[in-house]
Amino acid sequence: MSVQLGMPVPAAGDASAAGAPPPRPAGTPAGLWDRYGRRATDMRLSLTDKCNLRCTYCMPAEGLEWLSKQAVMTAEEIVRIVRIGVDALGVRELRLTGGEPLVRADLIEIISAIRGEHPELPISMTTNGVGLDKKAAALKAAGLTRINVSLDSLHEETFAKLTRRPFLDRVLAGVDAAWAAGLGPVKLNAVLMRGINDAESPDLLAWALGRGYELRFIEQMPLDADHGWTRRNMITAAEIRELLSRDFVLSPDPRERDGAPAERFEVRRRDTLSQDAAGPVLGTVGIIASVTEPFCADCRRTRITAEGKIMSCLFSREEFDLLGLLRQGASDAELAERWQDAMWVKPKAHGMDHTGLGAADFVQPDRSMSAIGG
Ligand SMILES: Nc1nc2c(ncn2[C@@H]2O[C@H](COP(=O)(O)OP(=O)(O)OP(=O)(O)O)[C@@H](O)[C@H]2O)c(=O)[nH]1
Ligand SMILES: C[S@@+](CC[C@H](N)C(=O)[O-])C[C@H]1O[C@@H](n2cnc3c(N)ncnc32)[C@H](O)[C@@H]1O
Ligand code: SF4
Ligand code: SF4
């Protein structure tokens, strides 16, 4: 790449106020490159800001004010934006997220239409699993490749405390249905919260390994609508490894990490007498340490919110309007230009020019995780 890396962002001026990023320097290569030499090839698209759970680390108890139907991208608009990403900008994988993607009535049609245009594109979805038992087979038939389900606890009481809804059985049925439908490898996401579900982590891992699911533990990030996150109170990756060492011995997974948020470990059971690893590898576990062991230097993600805004980083405080431009009648080439300009000014890490969630200069974005598209 011949562009100068780490260049300062030109003043956005009126362009930014209008939802347009400043133009990137002439001569930058085609594709979703940023000033730090990273190329986004992993597109995360939010289908809706709505959700039927109220996870404490994400949503407030009363929910949020939902976007109007007109504000949210239609199926046709989504398909067009994906087409531009894949055909013109080098997107190589698509993740559907939200809010809760399963609450979108036209979900199956959206997946079918994208699959029809992109037979080889890996399409995955992150979901809370409520209602998945009834839709898993149709999702597979429509062309969904694989699925990640959020599951923080196997105990009804803890689950209800974390999600503020009594739906554990429905989620478990959803996970099993996804597996049965061929949507594997099924990955499970658990955010650990101090004093609530952290002590359950070895049992949750044993359960996942026993069923062949890949569990990942996630450090809580400051993206909750209640702004209750504190650096001191979050469970760190180091603590997670320590918690798991009660029953298991973890060793680095030799497979390439390849820009993934999760650091993977092979898991063996600990021999209670010798304290050494015993027996065969039972499976793998992932730890997503966004706060204490950030992976921003290798970030390959570009995000489109449910109302069609480009967010270059999960913590971006600036977002740029793609859907508005599309609805004004812009051509595919014009939309691709805006997307590339928006990605060029992607922050180095955590919405800033350095890593540091919880640092003195870190400002939590206005949007919470569900409104961004996690
Ligand atoms: N800091 C940061 N965290 C992210 C980002 N994307 C995902 N995460 C975290 O990773 C968790 C898991 O994300 P998923 O959508 O399930 O999938 P994934 O781990 O990105 O992808 P796969 O392993 O390929 O399935 C999310 O809940 C976030 O907590 C990101 O761009 N930045
Ligand atoms: C925002 S949700 C959207 C998809 C779906 N509703 C779900 O829960 O899987 C995507 C992921 O973000 C994670 N998440 C939400 N808030 C988070 C936070 N504050 N820190 C870390 N992960 C968070 C959830 O656990 C979930 O795995
Ligand atoms: S994490 Fe997912 S399921 Fe939980 S409130 Fe946020 S969007 Fe809903
Ligand atoms: S915080 Fe931003 S730069 Fe870091 S991995 Fe997430 S999206 Fe990428």
TrEMBL record:
* Record-listed [4Fe-4S] cluster 2 binding positions: 296, 299, 313
The record's annotation in Gene3D superfamilies points to:
Aldolase class I
Q: What is the lineage of its organism?
A: Bacteria, Bacillati, Actinomycetota, Actinomycetes, Micrococcales
Co-factor remark: Binds 2 [4Fe-4S] clusters. Binds 1 [4Fe-4S] cluster coordinated with 3 cysteines and an exchangeable S-adenosyl-L-methionine and 1 [4Fe-4S] cluster coordinated with 3 cysteines and the GTP-derived substrate.
Q: Which domain of life is it from?
A: Bacteria
Annotated [4Fe-4S] cluster 1 binding sites: 51, 55, 58
Compositional bias ranges of the Low complexity kind: 8-19
Q: What is this enzyme's EC? A: 4.1.99.22
Describe the function of this protein.
Catalyzes the cyclization of GTP to (8S)-3',8-cyclo-7,8-dihydroguanosine 5'-triphosphate.
What name is this protein filed under? GTP 3',8-cyclase
Recorded catalytic activity of this chain's protein: GTP + AH2 + S-adenosyl-L-methionine = (8S)-3',8-cyclo-7,8-dihydroguanosine 5'-triphosphate + 5'-deoxyadenosine + L-methionine + A + H(+)
The pathway to which it is assigned is:
Cofactor biosynthesis; molybdopterin biosynthesis
Record-linked InterPro entries: Aldolase_TIM (IPR013785), Elp3/MiaA/NifB-like_rSAM (IPR006638), MoaA (IPR013483), MoaA-like (IPR040064), MoaA_NifB_PqqE_Fe-S-bd_CS (IPR000385), MoaA_twitch (IPR010505), MoCo_biosynth_MoaA/MoaC (IPR050105), rSAM (IPR007197)
Q: Which amino acid positions bind GTP, per UniProt?
A: 44, 95, 126, 187, 301-303
